[in-house]
Amino acid sequence: MSLENIRDDEVDIVIGALHSDLTTFMNEWKPMFCRFHLIIVKDPDLKEELRIPDGFNLNVYTKSDIDQVVGSSTSILFSGYSCRYFGYLVSQKRYIISMDDDCIPARDNKGFLVDAIAQHISNLSTPATPFFFNTLYDPFREGADFVRGYPFSLRSGVQCALSCGLWLNLADYDAPTQALKPEQRNSLYVDAVMTVPAAAMLPISGINVAFNREVLGPALIPALRLAGEGKLRWETMEDIWCGMCVKFVCDHLGLGVKTGLPYVWRNDRGNAIESLKKEWEGVKLMEEVVPFFQSVRLPASAATAEDCIVELAKVVKERLGAVDPVFTRAAGAMLDWVRLWKSVGSGASSLRA
Amino acid sequence: MEPATATAAAAPPVPALKDELDIVIPTIRNLDFLEMWRPFFQPYHLIIVQDGDPTRTIKVPEGFDYELYNRNDINRILGPKASCISFKDSACRCFGYMVSKKKYIYTIDDDCFVAKDPAGKPINALEQHIKNLLSASTPFFFNTLYDPFREGADFVRGYPFSLREGVPTAVSHGLWLNIPDYDAPTQLVKPLERNTRYVDAVLTIPKGTLFPMCGMNLAFDRELIGPAMYFGLMGDGQPIGRYDDMWAGWCTKVICDHLGLGVKTGLPYIFHSKASNPFVNLKKEYKGIFWQEEIIPFFQQAVLPKDCTTVQKCYIELAKQVKEKLSKVDPYFDKLADAMVTWIEAWDELNSSGATAPNGKA
């Protein structure tokens, strides 16, 4: 495993637009975004026209594009936060960096603006080390290394396929937590990137992520839709379900997942207590999901992300579908996604970015 | 980068756990470093384990309450079982764990000083370790905002509610600014590298994941995990050195995972002032670098039977497996497995009046 050299033209920045006016968002990110191609996917439920400032190299996709490419051939709904997955689908680049449209650049402990794009690229270009924990965190960072006692055979690491960033100000809490502590804001800047160990499960937030589309694309699935899903992150679980599947697939395929830097600054939005009134079924679902992933195993023959999702969908339907129909639908959506990926995502369609 | 000097102002008004925690310090040189730690350490009882020549007198700075053991004391107290305690290696510190009567242990090397946080404030490492040990760990699900019990943090969205209570914390592993804990090859290649990055986090190491445990700045709950903290056979007459804490860490983590106990790493930082000679280190570590390639898979695959419900039972079982599976790597492991059993026998003998109850569930 050597260092990857990621060129600017290998990266797509994908933004799911849940707000029509992206002017501030785009201008705040301009210094970091301007070198890259962007894909903006408008939430099909959004009625107003998108307002996007000039000066970017981008493609915008709206409901009509989604309908044209995907049509009614699928059970997947690309609405709300799931609209960004359409961007992942039609991208032609090797790497994707994706961010919610209510986030702006954060400042680090020294007051400098954090280039989240550069940090994600750095995370994806250096190896991950999932088989043994390094107590000085990412050994490939400037000024760090493997510590005494770290086996040499594990020092070359594995390919990092997913980079999970964090959030200052409004952290990604669930509604009950934020409702209990309405004034709590995350002001702790933890200057670390680390690999999440193999077999460890974690909640992967979709707010600030980057991944290797080439190896992992089919595994980022818009599959789990809550009955009461809304337009605020604490009214969704789609990314959490996606993240559990992705981590599981990475563990199976021997790929790495990093977490930590970069931070983004997440704007205050919504009222957690209001969201509590909606049924938080997602919280109940997680209780079933954890023992499921602890015990499920994929056959060794599942050698690609696509294979893994197909196999996983089968088991999800069998075992979790019996517990709650939302999982049966999720399993169906996972298979639909792989089908879509094969026909559109691998370059067959003319409507590519 | 400099260690902190004016620590007096930073001492807490009421030292936490002052009658329940012993500070174990191995030394072969002197204890001058204690002056700097005085405001933080003075309320606590010290156990000094004097390595090397027992005829030397190690002066303990005035005002500290301590007990000191040299090699003659170790031989006298343990008799033939003293063979399990290393000589001419800081691994001898584990004798201090054995003779302690307290619930908690903090161990620190004599070349570790008080570090400063990014605001320039002296760090009370002991206080942070105590916080770590007294709050729960979360080994079954990784929290992306690190320690959820920290002021200003919490569990993130998607973290299962049934796992939010956590489990008891058995070990708190601290880190080092300035001279990082590198092995000899890395030291030789990067002699000038200093750790200047203050990572403001404590996190639980997930179940099933091993890590290199450094004994320079380490605290643990002796009642929960003490017997697993055997630092092995190192130093004089042994083919290996600088793997004492590593060995204890791998055994400890496997047993903690089995018993449902937590291991934390991260804060607090201390300031590590002395870089040991990398050529000397290389000679000590040399075999370990090869052996660890076999040792790691051994620990990763080690399974403890359900009826191992105490730390001692787990440890004896591990010793059995070491003998079975690692002896073929080198006869040293055969000796080490025997020493592991001797250690448990000695531990139980010295700690029999307060017989340890089964800890945790298998």
From TrEMBL, chain A:
EC number: 5.4.99.30
Keyword presence, Cell wall biogenesis/degradation: yes
Top-level enzyme category: isomerase
Record Pfam families: RGP (PF03214)
Keywords assigned: Cell wall biogenesis/degradation, Glycoprotein, Golgi apparatus
Function statement: Probable UDP-L-arabinose mutase involved in the biosynthesis of cell wall non-cellulosic polysaccharides.
Protein name: UDP-arabinopyranose mutase
Species name: Rubroshorea leprosula
Automatic annotation (TrEMBL), chain B:
Keyword Secreted in annotation: no
SUPFAM superfamilies reported for this sequence: Nucleotide-diphospho-sugar transferases (SSF53448)
Entry keyword annotation includes Cell wall biogenesis/degradation: yes
Glycan-bearing residues: 157
Main location: Golgi
Enzyme class: isomerase
GO biological process: cell wall organization; plant-type cell wall organization or biogenesis; UDP-L-arabinose metabolic process
Keywords from the UniProt entry: Cell wall biogenesis/degradation, Glycoprotein, Golgi apparatus, Isomerase
Compartments, record wording: Golgi apparatus
Reaction it catalyzes: UDP-beta-L-arabinofuranose = UDP-beta-L-arabinopyranose
Required for activity, annotated site positions: 157, 164
Any one of the GO CC terms: cytosol
Enzyme Commission (EC) number: 5.4.99.30
Pfam families assigned to the protein according to its UniProt record, in alphabetical order: RGP
Gene Ontology terms for molecular function: UDP-arabinopyranose mutase activity
Function: Probable UDP-L-arabinose mutase involved in the biosynthesis of cell wall non-cellulosic polysaccharides.
Family: Belongs to the RGP family.
Stated name of the protein: UDP-arabinopyranose mutase
